[in-house]
Each structure stands twice: as C-alpha cells, then as structure tokens.
Design brief:
It contains 17 helices and twelve strands. With about 425 residues, it is an alpha/beta fold. It folds into two domains: about 90-100 and about 335-430, Aspartate Aminotransferase, domain 1; about 105-335, Type I PLP-dependent aspartate aminotransferase-like (Major domain) (Aspartate Aminotransferase, domain 2), CATH 3.40.640. The strands form two sheets. Strands 1-5-4-6-7-8-9-3 form an eight-stranded mixed β-sheet, sandwiched between helices. Strand 4, helix 8 (about 180-190) and strand 5 form a beta-alpha-beta unit. Helix 4 (about 105-115) packs antiparallel against helix 14 (about 320-335), helix 9 (about 205-210) runs parallel beside helix 10 and helix 15 packs parallel to helix 17 (about 420-430). The longest helix is centred in the last third of the chain and has 19 residues, at about 340-355. The structure holds pyridoxal-5'-phosphate (PLP). Pyridoxal-5'-phosphate (PLP) binds near residues 160, 251, 254 and 285. Pyridoxal-5'-phosphate (PLP) binds near residues 155, 226 and 285.
Length: about 425
C-alpha cells in the first residue's frame, strides 16, 4: 500500500495561504516552506494562476487556456456529464450509504416540507426565523448522536467553515490532519489562526505541536477520511487534546449513520458523545440521503455559532425540503438500525473480494473503499469501462487525493443485494488496467 501518512507540509506553521492553489490537499505553504513537487502537481500547476498573471494581449482570462492545457497533459481535466433521473447504472459513486435518498418516507417528507414551508428558507434564519421543522431536526440530531445541541447549515461544507472559523481566530492555533477534507482546510485558511498541518492520523505529532503552543488550540480531523475510508484514532486524539487543554473538532461526514451504535457516528463509538471539549460536524447528504450540514456540541458552542459563524449568519437557511427529508431519514435509521451494520458488511465484502483478486484496495473502516490505479489516465479509462458495463464508480485524481495516487472510489451501500455486489466485483476486476 502506498504511503498515506506523508503530510503535505508537516509541522509547517501556516499564516498565509498559498495564493491560487486550490487542490483539496494543498493545505497551504509559507515562504519558509517552498512548494514541493507534489504541491506543484496537486495545486499550482494544475489549478492556479501562474506568477505572470497578466500577459499582454491574452485578456484577463487568457491564462485559463494555459491551465487547461496543463490539466489535459497531466490527464487531470474534469468534465461534467448528464445524469438521468432513472439511470440503469449500479451506483457505487454516490454517498447514499444507507440507500435512503429514494426511500419513500424520505422523498415524501421532503415533498411535504416543500409544500408546507415553501421551496426555500427565504433568508438567513436570523432574519426570517427558525421553522418548527428546523428546530425538530436539530433536536433529533442532537438526541441521536448524544450531543447537547445542534445547528443545521445549508451544507456540510458550510458547517465545517462555521465550526473551524468560529472556534478559532487570530492568536489561536489550529492543528489539522494532512488528509482532512477540503472544507476543513478552507476553514483553516479563512480562520486567521496559525495552522499546523500534521502527518495523517498521528496523535503523537498532534501532541508535539500542542506542547509547543501557549494559548487556545483546536485539533481538527475527519472521523473517516474521504478518499481511503480509514478512521481517525479519535480516542488517542481526544487524549492528546485533553493533555494540553485543546478542543477537538471531528468531521463525521462519513461516520454518521454508519459507525457507532445504530449509526450514531464515530464520536459516539469513541465514547466522546456529549463531551464538553468535543465538537462534531456532519453532512445530511450522505447516510441521511438529503442535503445540508450540522454542527453538534455543547449548547454554549451552538449559541456562539449563531452569533459568530458567518456561514450561518450570512447564508440562507437549510431548504425546508432538505430538512424534512433528513428528519425522515433519521427516523428510518432509528427504526432500522441494522442498516448501519449491513452497509459496513458490504464494504468489508468489497475489500475482501477485490484484494483477493489482486487489486490494491484499502481496508475500509466505514463505507468508503478505494482501489488504486497506476495513473490518472488509467483511473479515468477504468471508470469509463466500468460505466460501459453498467457500473458507476468514483474516479479520484489529483488534486482530490492526499498522496497524488489516482484511484477508483467505491461506496458500499447497505441496500445492495449479494448479486449486485458480486456483479460489481466482477466488472471492476475484469476491467482493471493490465500493467
Ligand atoms: C469529509 C467531508 N466533509 C464535508 C463534506 C461536505 O459536505 P457537503 O457535501 O454536505 O457540503 C464532505 C462531502 O463530500 C466530506 O466528504
């Protein structure tokens, strides 16, 4: 297995983001730490503005064609393709882990919420108010995960920006895992805090950084990492934080609904639910099959976010249809907790069968299973061959991967039948690049 633990910029204190670098895993760089080759591939060469931004005669956007050419040469150009309402493809690309996005209770609740409350929230909840639906969703999410309180946002991305920025700021320190999701990285960039990027899943590195800092600190980590599907060592991270009086912020996007008792999430499984020094974020768009995000934590933290989080204050509240659908999905999960275990079992099955067939497959701690490809071009061609055979798989390439290695990303769904799992494995193995 390739090295996942190498940080992008381990131990580098970051105070100014690297201008124009937009790759998910290009956390930042400083004048003291010139970009590495990996930085350049994942970030500036592919996505950003070359230093001579204004070239006479090319117009203000002339440089985009140069960037496009770089992407094409590197096999990293992305394209949108149409999606049909009733696709015959077997979907292993989305994040609908529990198969709830088309569950009749969920779609009906979304439609009814839209009819009752309107198509949109019409403004920031601080301006237009909180509906009973939003309040109910927040109370049930908090109760389910064992948190004291909850606040929902228009997306998980917005929830992460809110939590990271409102719980840090100038004079404080953010300690961020090198494989964190882009939304946590962007929160760090916006925070005005000092940021230390530490090697992946390394509580000792976290401890070392905290030991050298005097002042408020927040350690930020995904619970399940979105590319390889491995879990963060939450109990050991929490212990490191407690040793130095730091807060812990866990993004449970890929844990909620899948890990813990009946899908109560990774912090719950780690015994951290309701802890006064732990804040959790999650998305409503994966296991809960809807759309939106949530911050879960102590009531004082949630009250602070209402007053300080810009993505709450200046963003239109979560759409009623999404709130209604997420609430219905949560109720299905509470009624049928076995959905969580079934999804994990499917993930283990994929891993076992693909590894046995000789593919370089990550061991899943939740529902994400990653299969490595020799190159970005191979990954794209492999995904296209799967598609031709009726299978939709994710294709992750730089800059969306922490180590520059392209892969197919499969999401195990609890509603897949044994025959569907078998067909998926057969297609992936048969269409694999031969090298
Ligand atoms: C780990 C992680 N955090 C946050 C998000 C953002 O959530 P949303 O899609 O609801 O904005 C994602 C989505 O892909 C994710 O994988």
């Amino acid at each position: 297995m390739a090295d996942r633990t190498r940080p992008v910029a381990a131990g580098v204190c970051i105070t100014t983001p690297c201008a124009g670098v937009t790759g998910q895993y290009v956390a930042a760089c400083t004048p003291r730490a010139p970009p590495t080759a990996a930085h350049r591939l994942r970030g500036s060469a592919v996505n950003s503005t070359p230093p001579a931004a204004r070239r006479p005669g090319t117009g203000p956007f002339g440089r985009l064609a140069e960037q496009d050419a770089v992407r094409r040469r590197a096999g990293l150009r992305r394209e949108l393709r149409p999606r049909e309402a009733d696709s015959a493809l077997l979907d292993l690309a989305g994040n609908d882990y529990l198969g709830l996005t088309r569950h009749p209770d969920v779609t009906r609740a979304g439609a009814e919420a839209c009819l009752r409350w309107g198509a949109g929230s019409t403004g920031s909840r601080l301006v237009t108010g909180t509906t009973a639906l939003h309040a109910e969703l927040e109370a049930e999410l908090a109760d389910f995960t064992g948190a004291e309180a909850a606040l929902v946002f228009a997306s998980g991305y917005a929830a992460n920006l809110a939590a990271v920025t409102a719980l840090s700021g100038a004079g404080s320190l953010l300690v961020s895992d090198a494989a964190n999701h882009a939304s946590l990285i962007d929160g760090c960039r916006l925070s005005r805090a000092a940021v230390e990027v530490v090697p992946h899943a390394d509580p000792d590195a976290v401890r070392k950084v905290l030991a050298g800092h005097d002042g408020p600190a927040l350690v930020v980590s995904d619970s399940v990492f979105s590319v390889d599907g491995d879990a963060a060592p939450l109990p050991r991270l929490a212990a490191a934080c407690r040793e130095y009086g730091a807060g812990l912020l866990v993004d449970d996007a890929h844990g909620l609904g899948v890990l813990g008792d009946g899908g109560r999430g990774a912090p719950h499984a780690a015994g951290l639910a309701g802890a006064p020094d732990v804040v959790c974020t999650a998305t409503l768009s994966k296991s809960l099959g809807a759309q939106g995000g949530v911050v879960l934590g102590p009531a004082a933290v949630i009250e602070h976010l209402v007053n300080a989080a810009r993505t709450f204050i200046f963003d239109t509240g979560l759409a009623p249809a999404a709130a209604g659908a997420a609430l219905a999905a949560l109720r299905v999960l509470r009624r049928e907790p076995e959905r969580a275990e079934r999804a994990r079992a499917v993930a283990r099955d994929f891993h076992q069968r693909l590894s046995a067939a000789g593919l370089d497959t990550t061991r899943p701690d939740a529902c994400v299973v990653s299969v490595r490809a020799p190159s970005p071009e191979d990954a794209v061609a492999w995904a296209a061959r799967c598609r031709e055979e009726g299978l939709a798989v994710g294709c992750f390439r730089p800059p969306s991967v922490p180590d520059g290695v392209s892969r197919l990303r499969l999401t195990a769904r609890g509603d897949l039948t044994a025959a569907e799992v078998g067909r998926a494995v057969e297609v992936i193995v048969r269409t694999a690049p031969r090298r």
